[in-house]
């Protein structure tokens, strides 16, 4: 059985210079669990989280998901690549940035939130992502403005309060309309059911390991 992959937190949460959750991450795979449902009270919180909104817009939106990510998380990078064909057919993705994985993660997350064109900078981050170095392809902000740091802190607190433990964490609308969360990149074959969209061809060689 194919297994989802993620960066999982392996140390206790702390607050470091960027005031994000400072935890070490290692690549692991775990069996895909049954849906873990979020309480209805959580919905306004993640729906209003500071995020980069990518994909379908307006009347073209057929499905919406929310993804907690770190700019240097390689499995977030793989998730971004896997979701691109689905964005073309009606998926809207709210990428909720945090900065915990590497020293420059907070600066890159801040750059995404501050960008005049967030989706364009996110695309640059991902298309220039170094899979060898596991590093997002944009420059970090040297100094993070207080307002932007406050937004990043809020995303990190939300992540902790929801009990999440790795990136990417995907929030999706499950059958019956309830919101559920999934930690890690699931098998590609499960994406149509997860997104409630027709299956799309995914030919990227780096994603074949997730079939």
Give a written overview of the molecule:
By secondary structure, the chain is an alpha+beta fold. The chain has a single domain, classed as Glutaredoxin, CATH 3.40.30. Helix content is 28%, strand content 20%. It is built from six helices and nine strands, in the order βββαββαβαααβββα. It has helices at residues 43-47, 74-87, 105-114, 118-127, 146-161, 191-195; strands spanning 5-9, 25-29, 36-37, 52-55, 63-69, 91-97, 166-167, 169-173, 179-183. The chain has a six-stranded mixed sheet with strand order 3-9-8-5-6-4. Strands 2-1-7 form a three-stranded antiparallel sheet, with helices on one face. A hairpin with a 5-residue loop joins β8 (169-173) and β9.
How many beta-strand runs? 9
CATH topology-level name: Glutaredoxin
How many structural domains does the protein architecture include?
A: 1
Radius of gyration from the alpha-carbon trace, in angstroms: 16 Å
Share of residues in helices: 25-40%
Secondary-structure content class: alpha+beta
Strand portion? 15-25%
Report the CATH superfamily.
Glutaredoxin
